[in-house]
Write a structure and sequence with these properties.
By secondary structure, the chain is of the alpha+beta class. The protein has one domain: 60s Ribosomal Protein L30, Chain: A, CATH 3.30.1330.80. The chain contains six helices and 16 strands. The chain has a seven-stranded mixed sheet, with no helix packed on it. Strands 9, 10, 11, 12, 13, 14 and 15 form a seven-stranded antiparallel sheet that branches. Strands 2-7 form a two-stranded antiparallel sheet. The relative contact order is 0.23. It binds zinc ion. Zinc ion binds next to strand 13.
């Protein structure tokens, strides 16, 4: 082949790369939130494992949820999934383990909201709210740092017939108070109109930086908080193909 031919081939390859790559990256990052089942079903006591974490991992590397039998709190961070059991200890989640509810996304930080002052959890929520352009979109939020105080909870595994979640919280939730703890809060802020299918407002699960403890955030104290936020533009709800979901009375 002559030099001219090589140049033409080179040009063709460059054109293909330039045309395909932007489309490809758009394809892999969709700003898409995904949830499996609904919080309403969970509240009603539908704790059967209805899908595997292998499947959930296809939908996101960041998020929260629970495990079969309401066996603790789920935290997904950087593609690693952890289960904080009723003893407050974080255990790695295996792909073949199952969940009744999880919400995940492929998180990519868009912006950081910095709140310097010492704040309660409620104060922090209001401070972040003031920086959001809309209350009508879902946001994925990651807060890394050292926290003066965090109050988190988990719950021990339930046995069928499953009691509703309000009963579990009343009777057997376990509360852990962590002081000057380093780690990451993983969560979402969802619009009020999500209420019938998920938790509206802020919902965080915590994991320590050594990935050994954590739980569902109940309260805390915050100082110089950097909340990393991504606005999600799409939200999918996968509904369980499972008799206990299909036959439940869901309001
Ligand atoms: Zn939670």
């Amino acid at each position: 082949m002559k030099l001219k031919h090589y140049l033409w081939i080179g040009l063709l390859v460059m054109t293909v790369i330039l045309c395909v790559l932007p489309g490809y990256s758009q394809h892999v990052h969709k700003k898409l939130g995904f949830q499996f089942s609904t919080v309403g079903a969970l509240s009603a006591g539908i704790y059967d494992g209805m899908t595997t974490f292998k499947d959930i991992k296809q939908q996101g590397n960041f998020g929260l949820g629970t495990l079969e039998g309401l066996d603790g709190e789920l935290i997904a961070l950087d593609g690693k999934f952890f289960q904080v059991k009723g003893d407050g200890v974080a255990y790695p989640v295996k792909d073949e383990m199952k969940t009744p509810f999880a919400a995940v996304t492929f998180f990519r930080k868009e912006r950081t909201v910095r709140v310097k002052e010492r704040m309660t959890y409620e104060g922090l929520q209001q401070a972040i709210d003031q920086q959001l352009s809309s209350k009508n979109l879902p946001y994925a939020i990651r807060i890394q740092g050292i926290f003066p105080y965090l109050k988190v909870r988990s719950a021990p595994k339930q046995k069928p017939p499953y009691p509703p979640i309000s009963e579990v919280i009343k009777r057997s939730q376990v509360i852990f108070e962590l002081r000057n703890v380093q780690g990451t809060l993983v969560g979402f802020r969802l619009p009020q109109y999500f209420k019938s299918v998920n938790t509206d407002g802020y919902h965080f699960h915590f994991i320590t930086s050594d990935r050994k403890a954590g739980g569902h955030l109940l309260d805390g104290e915050f100082l110089d908080t950097h909340a990393e936020i991504e606005t999600l533009r799409d939200w999918h709800i996968a509904l369980p193909n499972h008799a206990s979901f299909e036959q439940a009375t869901l309001n």
